[in-house]
Amino acid sequence: MGLRRDEQIPGLELATTTELSIVSFRSTAGDDDTRRIFDGVNASGVVHVSSTTIADRFTIRLALLSQRTTQEMVIEVLDVVRELAPV
After folding, report:
1. pTM of this prediction?
2. Which CB contacts under 8 angstroms, 24+ apart, belong to 6-9?
3. Does position 4 have pLDDT exceeding 70, yes or no?
């Protein structure tokens, strides 16, 4: 999972096509692991993510809507997600 399909994080999959600045993703290990990642990202204090259900699967939604969002911020968020992703 990354901002482009060729920048994937092992153990994660995009749940939908990325539109505007919303990235929906989940663990390939299932809903319990996706919830663990969700909780870990929010506990990190780096960013707050929301969730939704897509095709009966718990899914994390990362919204990068602020015009003040920098590339460095996105990299920091992806680093947190990478650390939590299943191996």
Report:
1. 0.80
2. 9/78, 9/81, 9/82, 9/85
3. no
